[in-house]
Amino acid sequence: xxxxxxxxxxxxxxxxxxxxxxxxxxxxxxxxxxxxxxxxxxxxxxxxxxxxxxxxxxxxxxxxxxxxxxxxxxxxxxxxxxxxxxxxxxxxxxxxxxxxxxxxxxxxxxxxxxxxxxxxxxxxxxxxxxxxxxxxxxxxxxxxxxxxxxxxxxxxxxxxxxxxxxxxxxxxxxxxxxxxxxxxxxxxxxxxxxxxxxxxxxxxxxxxxxxxxxxxxxxxx
Length: 221
Hints:
This protein is of the alpha/beta class. The chain is 25% helix and 19% strand.
């Protein structure tokens, strides 16, 4: 499942969906929650947003009972998928928690929960969506965004990175070297890293000079 709204072109959702399907051996269906359903091709089934909000707040729609039945794997569309991670998905599902994620890279605003990669049992935390339905107009622009608001409302989150620390790494905070305002990115990555999170800037379309982004994002049609 991806969410693509507002400023992101559908190309982003298409690329990560195509790459996931090329890597996985699991039997899955692909969906894209979007405000531009007519732009979604045969790479996914378009889903209308139960509530149209701003930017990352649209991700809270994933907690609606209107979502497809079963387990939902949600991926932020500015991530680069490099290796198969079926094992980690199946392990997380086996732990029988309603929500699993990977810890936020910097525990933004003191919140460990991150919404960039989530495994959800469909409809199991609908109270979050119901609260969002009532409050979404007042939440727009709230500091910290969706994950800082959602995290405290989940009583028992499984943090997959505590078992698999190399599943996902943040490009700026885990991989790059930062010296003042200068950021230097390595030409190669530790092969143990399976997902590269490009949250913030630069985005994957600006990183064609990095072979691991070119091969796993730019070259995906």
